[in-house]
Predict the structure.
Amino acid sequence: MATLRDVIRQKPWLGWVLFTCTVVIVFLLGLLASSIVERKSEALIAYTPQVEHGQYEPRNEVWGENFPRQYQSYKKTKDSSFKSKYNGNAMIDMQEVDPRLIVLWAGYGFGKDYKQGRGHAYAVEDVRNTLRTGAPVNGAVSPMPNTCWTCKSPDVPRLMNEAGIAEFYKGTWETKGHEIVNAIGCGDCHDAKTMNLKITRPALTEAFERMGKDINDASHQEMRSLVCAQCHVEYYFNKKMVEGVPYLTFPWDKGLSVEAMEEYYDEMEFSDWTHAVSKAPMLKAQHTGYEVYLTGIHASRGVSCADCHMPYMSEGGQKFTDHHVQSPLNNVANSCQVCHREETEQLIQDVYSHQDRIIENRDKLEELIVRAHVEAKFAWDLEATEEQMKDILMDIRHAQWRWDYAASSHGGSFHSPVETGRVISSGITIAQEGRLKLARLFAELGHNEELPYPDISTKAKAQEFIGLPAEKLQEEKKLFLEEVVPEWLEKAREREEGYEVKTVNQY
Ligand code: HEC
Ligand code: HEC
Ligand code: HEC
Ligand code: HEC
């Protein structure tokens, strides 16, 4: 066999070809190595801390000095220009869209005001603005406790660390207004030293403990949903845990399904309020986002909240997490098409068709529950007894709990359409059973005609129906925002000036 040397001796040009190839390959490898070094030093510049701050630094802009890309994208949660068919980041007055809500929540804060959420950067502003927190001005107090601040701000872990958890929840809402001024941010989800994901809200850790689980055992992928489950969950204020404190508690001890939580609440005879029209002992579902998500196909395939709501993006050769948490329909390319091959339009239509079908039945259930409240009131007017009403009121409670569990789970009709549909249809069955009992009771009480459905076709008409002094509440709120909030901000500014932040790197 001829050796390479023999071949080259016969065909000298082949030697030159081999030589040139070697030179080119070495050159390319050199280029690659230098580009890797460059990227590495770029990364080093981007992630070399500019400032040093503690875990309880509440100001997003301070954390943002070290992580400008994440901070810049976080700031986009201020954008409110995107609207999808039912959601998006514009603020939607749900009482205008659906005046039935005013009757369903009569006698409760949500009957006064309910707007669909917008970006995280608005969290503090919006809780001040809502009529639900009242107008604590001129010595008046808020109807809400400090517990209501819990899901709004990185000032919350700061205060819990300073004063203790129960001490944080204690007292009415306005007493901590000057303390809580920074909207949801870095300190809510991250460890300051390592930037690893971190659970900062004790209610979630405690719920895990009561279920016999340790949240520290959660996998990295689970953490990408659990940081959201600190806030996007069902909760209630437990007044029996610590004397005089509305202690934030997740009702998960028996499980996270609609039935398990209902049983939990029934067993402890808990109710959020007594309905102003029917007098039923009601439950208010808060935002069962995480619970419903868990029952869906994406959760069972291991897709996390962050995969869709905080996808990776790339800028200047750097891959990072998009902190513009929003409707994924505003960013289908990064949110969905990393896994799905379908066209953008098709994927959006898939979401809408789930939502349309769920909402069709949800609206029917709402109408049935409105009827049941009105009929129950009529039965009381006919002097029905507590004994006669007991089961009926429980049916109303259970039907509305199911409706709210489905409706308040923002995104639920996409996150888990089958479960959401099931919960709504079981609500329809229960509402109808209650109304059958009501019809029988009416017959007993000598009434034999169907009650007319109230005219609640507009927000104003529905407010009038339940006797809500909407204008007065608005005026008081305006005064509070003009007089009290600027004082809160001034106090906060003075306090924050004293925080220690060390500049560690100056160029
Ligand atoms: C500290 C509590 C908290 C945490 C943690 C949290 N959220 Fe939120 N989220 C809120 C609140 C409060 C709002 C409503 C803000 C408003 O309307 O002012 C909201 C709003 C949203 C919205 C609506 C945005 C829009 O533009 O309409 C989405 C989507 C969302 N959150 C997803 C998530 C995801 C995903 C996570 C986890 C990666 C998460 N949230 C973590 C409290 C939280
Ligand atoms: C609602 C929770 C949440 C908030 C608020 C939040 N982050 Fe993150 N952050 C995440 C998640 C989820 C990831 C992805 C982590 C992973 O998979 O390891 C992440 C990743 C990061 C990373 C790692 C690099 C990357 O881009 O993946 C940095 C740095 C970071 N965030 C900085 C910040 C800063 C700065 C802020 C405040 C402006 C902030 N984060 C606010 C949830 C949050
Ligand atoms: C990390 C990967 C991943 C991402 C991101 C993702 N999906 Fe999926 N999706 C899946 C998997 C896996 C399934 C289950 C299909 C299967 O196992 O055959 C699925 C199923 C679906 C289905 C059919 C089931 C149903 O509920 O109707 C739809 C529709 C869908 N995805 C839409 C979307 C949309 C819209 C987005 C973006 C907002 C998205 N997906 C983001 C992986 C993903
Ligand atoms: C497979 C992708 C996917 C996953 C996983 C996912 N979501 Fe969503 N989410 C969506 C889509 C799509 C919508 C509907 C957006 C719309 O209608 O504009 C949505 C809607 C929402 C909304 C209402 C948004 C608005 O604009 O008002 C919230 C809040 C939300 N999701 C939170 C979560 C939380 C918390 C988790 C994890 C527990 C999660 N999502 C997991 C895709 C996802």
Observations:
- The two ends are 64 Å apart (CA to CA).
